[in-house]
Amino acid sequence: MEFNFINPRKNALVYLVKILSGCLVLWYGLRAAGIEEPYWAMISLIVVTEPDMTVAKANFRARLINTLSGCVVSCIALVIFGPTFLAMLVALTAAVVVAMLLQNYPSNWRLGPATVVILLSAAFSGNGLNQELHLAFMRVGEVIVGSAMALLQTVLYIWLFKRRQPHEQRPPAP
Predict the structure, then answer these.
(1) Would you say 151 and 57 are in contact if contact means Cβ atoms under 8 Å apart?
(2) Model-level pTM greater than 0.90?
(3) What's 11's DSSP letter?
(4) 21: which residues sit within 8 A by CB, 6+ positions away?
(5) Helix, strand or coil, per DSSP, at residue 9
(6) Low-confidence ranges of the chain (pLDDT < 70)
(7) Crossing angle, helix 111-124 and helix 129-164, to 10 degrees?
(8) Beta strands in 56-99 (DSSP E)
(9) For 128, phi and psi rounded to 5 degrees?
(10) 70-88 burial, b for 16+ CB within 10 Å, e for fewer?
């Protein structure tokens, strides 16, 4: 009996190793740093992870831009409206408008409005504006750390791959 429908994609093992090793580093590293449940760092690692440096950089850039714009919009909505569903709707609207009006905004613009939901949902569990803003910034920090870990892993992967190539197969130095 053959399982022809099971055909691993190119780089499947690379993705698996990078995601699992990155999640282990993030989970234990961020927990040691005092972040009890670093889920958003792990999600960002998964979103940004790529074996190709150009794609990884583009994913990192998009994740950073979307996270920062979603954070700014969310924090403004929190200050003006407080942690309410209305604040979430206003911030979602603003995040979509920002993404649609700015030229050269990353194509995966939906991460901005998703960041709004993530940050405001964290703020719903806060007790006061200071704690709500603190929770929002903690989520943003996790996203940035997870994205940076994915980019760092890509750099390390490329370096290790180039080191493994036999000396005679390496391209000549420029």
Answers:
(1) yes
(2) no
(3) T
(4) 153
(5) coil
(6) 1-8, 166-174
(7) 130
(8) none
(9) 105, 155
(10) bbbbbbebbeebebeeebb
